[in-house]
Amino acid sequence: MNETNTARGIASHYRRVDVESTAVSTADGSEDTRGPANGDRVLTIRDLSVEIRRGERVVRPVSGVNLALNRGETLGIVGETGSGKSMTGFAIMGMLPAGGRVTGGSIDLGGKELVGLPAAQYRAIRGNDVAMVFQDSMTALNPTRRIGEQVAEPVRLHQGASKRAARGRAEEMLALVGLPRPAERLDDYPHQLSGGMRQRVMIAMALVCEPRVVIADEPTTALDVTIQAEILELLDDLKSRLGMSMILITHDMGVIARHADRVGVMYGGRVAETGPTPVLFSRTRHRYTHALLSSIPSLTHDRSEELFSIPGAPPDLTVAHVGCPFAPRCDAATDRCREEQPALSTEEDGHAHACWHPASGPTARVRARFAASTAILPEREAAPRLRVVDLRREYPAGSAGLFGRRRTVKAVSGVSFEVAAGETFGLVGESGCGKSSLGRMLVALDRPTSGEVIFDGEPVTRMSARALGARRTQLQMMFQDSNASLDPRMRIGTILREPLAIQGVGTRAQRTARARELLQDVGLPAGVMERYPHELSGGQRQRVGLARALALDPKVLVADEPVSALDVSIRSQVLNLMRRIQLERGLSSVVISHDLAVVRYLADRVGVMYLGKLVETGTTEEVYGAAAHPYTAGLLAAVPEADPRTRRPRLSARVRGELPSPIDPPSGCRFRTRCALATALCAETEPPLEPLAGTHRVACHHPLQQKRSAELTTR
Amino acid sequence: MTWYVARRLAISFLVLLGISAVVFFLLHLVSDSPGRVVLGQRASPEAVAAFNQEHGFDRPVVAQYVGYLDQLAHGDLGRSYKLNEDVGTLLWQNAGRSAMLSAAGLVLALLIAVPLGILQAVRRNRFVDRAATAASYVLYATPSFLLGLILIAVFSQALPIFPAEASQSHSPWVVFTDPRAMALPVITLAVTSVAIFSQYQRSSALDQLGQDYIRVARAKGLPERLILTRHLLRNACLPLITLVGTLVPTLLAGNLIVESLFNYPGLGLLFLNSLQREDYPVLLAYTLIGGVLTVAGNFVADLVVAVADRRIELSK
């Protein structure tokens, strides 16, 4: 077998017709002996360990990992930051970062051992037999080279194709990944394409040599949900068309549930649990998987219940661990867990787990219920606390010459809504819809082009800078990236005291006492005061961000993507904290997120934004339960639920295509270019935001609510 | 693009006008009576007055400036009374040789610095990198006249490989026709630039090495050498282009020292001699050239960057 492999030569093109009868030894008793016949085995990873040495520090991101990939199969590897999922991918590619090396185990690709393979031979495999799709297509494509050249490069390298032949192949491949007019696009530069299109180019580049295995490392994390759905479907489709196998690395259980045939759950550099997707989700055995699934906010979960959250933080991989890596955070942990490392033990159906006290039964957990909000009810007076009236914001976008009219990006185009005292208003929409611009204007960090933000009866947008200074105490913001929004050279104590000092609140001692109180409120020990932001974990920093926003006891809190930078297990901690604080303090808050489940969990009322406009508003139940705007329905359909039993929605329900330019938005209804229901009327007149039922309002000529009832009767 | 170029040219023109005004009035402050300078301390006041009147130096300073601009518009840079020669002719005779010297120094510096910087980035914190960084700091801190003297002492006195004096030929192509005689001046000029450029290139290459597209190139199976030449090189050089553009006028200053040290007849030597002779029309023209180079260097660098990096749109 090895002989034939080398005989085929470095640049030879592997054809799918080759019988890959592999001589994999499966006598090690791992779960890999189960499942499909070994003749279908493409990749086998046994007992793989990786170590990264940086100076004195040694990190062990991967320890004793066993995984197998069969022909035509998608293996999902899921885990949080630092779980070792990406490093496993890089180990397969032979592309460990500087200082990294495989310290043990084997990676077997169709009978060829990859561990210890000489560099030149590894290069012949990379991009040819095993290819990788990266996360961020913006940085993953060379900005100064044409996409045609970049896609053609592997063909020229591995197949020795001529320049012209490679270009032809690149064009074919670009057509295959659904790039419109590929012949014209060959000479484009990456920045001329949208994010979704760039990711298609990235995929074309990885698949152009028709590899046997493609490793997709968070292929859609940087994309919007609607685009994500398209890209994942494209990958599924290409995988079966080209007869490849895929390793899908992601942190998103929903993506795994919808797109993986088998799953490996990683934690602390080890495989915690692995098995066929339906089995793993329905009979979750490992305590970590169990807890992880319970802590994901879903579109169906009861909002009056707290999310389950895993206490603590993932393990530090620079120190050697004894026992189960999850034991310190596990509520079922016993002394045995802390002393003895559990091995993967196999059950029927190739389902295996490494847990001494596996859970039995489904993932349903008893969740704590939130106390009924007491503080806010009497406060709900007639006058809203925050009122936004026809708010517009346009940013200049270059210029069309000295005398031409200045072109503008219409970020926010006439948005009106109200937030009552103690109420949480959620803003959802894809990136570029103007939700963040709107958020900044709400707290007077930016001034609108026209329209007003009225806070407690006073128009904030027209206040002088001086008058605004005092008002700002009432309007606070929590930022997405807590790493960037906390001054790296200030201690946490100073950060928390600063807003108080600026507003001249209390003496120094009083301010320190207040900072301690705030930390307590967000569940951090007082010792954190003396630390710097980089010494805290992401979740802890985000808590500090929240504490800082609360320091001046604001009446309005705007949270812009408060949890999108956090891992699942940490995310639920912060979400629960935000819910609790909203209820306790009677804050009016505006939560901005692209994540529909997050908004559903936090918000009482929701506004869906599309290209600078609100297209639908209503209570959370109204909007999520009976979406009336085709865009809302499309967004909801695109969210993958962490449950493989939920059906994939029909393709017609999807939002197709990409966001039009906010410089020249479409006439009439701005969504019409992507809407399946659009008619001539939609292009001519803009639909106003009109009441549908109760507080539910929608801006659509053909709202789904009436339509859906009509459809039901006819079918 | 055309619009952008036109706009930039218009702005450049205004900048140069400003420079000419500032320099003209400063020089006027230093010496308001060119007749005295030209005719010497022992000339009679009448003769000086007559000279000034004849050449219009008794007019109000603003009128003189307008007259100067009028001359410039006609391509006349004035007249050196000390050398009794048109300034334009003087500059023209020397500009070619200076430009050639500068260009040779610059090209040599880039040829060394670009690969060196990339090598340092690839071998970050290894011996090569640290040694090169240390050497860069030392060389950067060394004044060029000292460096030149050391080079002469070593390569001309101790080991007689190169002559201590530059070629005296009047051809601007001496760098090619007599490379041995030009080696030391060119090296002296290049060394300081190498020190700056290589450090700059190193940090820029480090930025690019951390980018995903380098990993993608690796994932395609490209050998390391091709990753560097095909993918890294161009992106890593983009910031350097801007730097070189802004440094172009300093080449003129570098020439000043190198030309006088190696006695190379060029603009720098002309400037020094004119300074000693208080030959103001020449000094004025020289300063103006410095202004033109500053403006042109930045302008050309912006254009080159825009061509090399298509993400940049020249529309403002």
Cross-sheet strand order for the largest sheet of chain A: 6-7-8-3-9-10-12-11
The CATH architecture assignment of the largest domain in chain B turns out to be Orthogonal Bundle
How many strands in all of chain A?
Answer: 24
CATH fold name of the domain at 370-424 and 447-563 and 573-589 in chain A:
Rossmann fold
How many strand segments of chain B? 2
Secondary structure category of chain A: alpha/beta
Category by helix and strand content of chain B: mainly alpha
- Poorly predicted runs of chain A are 1-37, 374-379, 707-715
Question: What's the level 1 CATH class of the domain at 370-424 and 447-563 and 573-589 in chain A?
Answer: Alpha Beta
What does this structure look like?
Chain A: InterPro entries: AAA+_ATPase, ABC_Ni/Peptide_Import, ABC_transporter-like_ATP-bd, ABC_transporter-like_CS, Oligopep_ABC_C, P-loop_NTPase. The complex is a heterodimer of chains A (715) and B (316). Chain A has 715 residues and is an alpha/beta fold. Among the domains of chain A are: 135-210, no CATH class; 370-424 and 447-563 and 573-589, Rossmann fold (3-Layer(aba) Sandwich); 604-715, no CATH class. Chain A contains 25 helices and 24 strands. In chain A, strand 1 and strand 2 form a beta hairpin. The longest helix of chain A is centred in the last third of the chain and has 18 residues, at 568-585. The model of chain A is unreliable at 1-37, 374-379 and 707-715 (pLDDT under 50). Chain B has two domains: 2-88, no CATH class; 95-308, MetI-like fold, CATH 1.10.3720. In chain B, strand 1 (79-80) and strand 2 (85-86) form a beta hairpin. Chain B is mainly α. A two-stranded antiparallel sheet of chain B has the order 1-2. Classes of the chains: A alpha/beta (715), B mainly alpha (316). The interface between A and B is medium-sized, with 34 and 25 residues.
